Structure to design on (382 residues):
């Protein structure tokens, strides 16, 4: 079987052949340790043998003994020091599985792992992000009891979030997002990475499905997309704080893309927080109605979900909405008027409390606004 094993390139075929090897071995850790060592001697080619280990690790269905973990960690350390980036990435990927079983031997490797933060290969960064996500997982916070280790892992995570290779960013962001509640220091680098993703990759990441990325050797890396794991309120607050830090007059497309994925998922349990969010950020949200590129997503994917959630609580901000509609009438492209008209008619169709609030608002329209928003005026007069 060895000549075939050495020549195969397909991960699927390699996996099938290794399953045959393991079928000849007792399903206990001691026997698997012997089999791994015998396989190393038989293959007699370091790089090739190390490429087999991630597949072998997936076959450890009986669990990991301390000795088996120690053996895998030894090979991971060996691979991290090799020049091939694919092997370093595979090694970090194996450490993710080990960390889930026992994070102590992985924490001991943090100084070595920190040196990989300057790695140029995207998959190494992606696997480092997955590893940070495993170590910082909220349900495992009690295991990460060493404060110094926690600081080091958070610092490593922040370094990995600073990477700007889109494929790596997508993996890191999806892996780190569940940790943001417990480690809010990661919010700012998280949001900066999210905003600086190219639009195509950001939209793919914000979709509601799993994301699959190709790895070296034809394997794939599957990660959950953000909306299934991220704390929406925290991300929204950090997003708008970033806009203020950058002294932005209006939101950019990247900000609205994130909000458009986030606000339709706003939770009823966080209603008070979202009411405050609208109060604090109404200027940024409403002025989007005056931008031809932003008006449609701002109205349908940002403001409408907020209004439906908040009901009466959103009406306190409508004086700002009225002032914005006046700007739409006076200065914005005609396309913005059409979008704003549709938005107001959709609100009217929801009934109270919006219908009465719209009557009050329209009573404050000047003549040019009544002409520009004649459809809304007509509907209210019927």
């Amino acid at each position: 079987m060895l000549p075939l094993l050495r020549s195969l390139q397909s991960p699927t075929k390699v996996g099938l052949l290794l399953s045959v090897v393991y079928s000849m071995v007792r399903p206990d850790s001691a026997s698997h340790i012997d089999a791994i060592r015998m396989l190393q001697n038989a293959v007699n080619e370091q790089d090739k043998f190390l490429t087999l280990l991630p597949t072998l690790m997936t076959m450890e269905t009986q669990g990991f003994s301390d000795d088996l973990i120690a053996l895998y960690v030894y090979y991971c350390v060996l691979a991290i020091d090799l020049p091939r980036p694919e092997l370093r990435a595979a090694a970090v990927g194996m450490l993710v599985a080990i960390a889930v079983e026992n994070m102590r031997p992985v924490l001991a490797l943090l100084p070595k792992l920190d040196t990989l933060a300057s790695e140029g290969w995207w998959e190494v960064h992606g696997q480092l992000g997955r590893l940070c996500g495993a170590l910082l997982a909220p349900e495992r916070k009690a295991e990460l009891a060493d404060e110094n280790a926690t600081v080091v892992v958070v610092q490593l995570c922040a370094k990995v979030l600073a990477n700007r290779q889109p494929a790596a960013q997508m993996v890191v962001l999806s892996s780190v997002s569940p940790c943001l509640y417990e480690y809010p220091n990661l919010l700012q680098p998280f949001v900066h990475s999210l905003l600086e993703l190219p639009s195509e990759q950001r939209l793919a990441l914000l979709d509601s499905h799993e994301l699959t990325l190709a790895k070296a050797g034809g394997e794939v890396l599957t990660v959950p997309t953000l909306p299934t794991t991220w704390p929406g309120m925290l991300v929204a607050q950090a997003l708008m704080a970033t806009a203020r830090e950058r002294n932005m007059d209006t939101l950019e497309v990247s900000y609205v893309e994130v909000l458009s994925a986030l606000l339709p998922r706003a939770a009823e349990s966080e209603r008070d927080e979202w009411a405050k969010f609208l109060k604090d950020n109404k200027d940024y949200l409403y002025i989007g109605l005056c931008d031809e590129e932003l008006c449609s997503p701002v109205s349908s994917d940002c403001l409408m979900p907020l209004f439906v959630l908040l009901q009466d609580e959103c009406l306190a901000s409508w004086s700002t909405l009225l002032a914005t509609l006046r700007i739409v009438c006076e200065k914005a492209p005609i396309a913005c008027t059409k979008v704003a008209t549709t938005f107001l008619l959709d609100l009217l169709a929801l009934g109270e409390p919006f219908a009465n609030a719209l009557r009050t608002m329209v009573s404050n329209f000047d003549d040019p606004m009544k002409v520009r928003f004649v459809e809304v005026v007509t509907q209210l007069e019927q």
Notes: Strands lie at 211-214, 220-223. The first strand starts at residue 211 and ends at 214. Residues 64-228 form a domain with the Leucine-rich Repeat Variant fold (CATH 1.25.10). The longest helix spans residues 85-101.
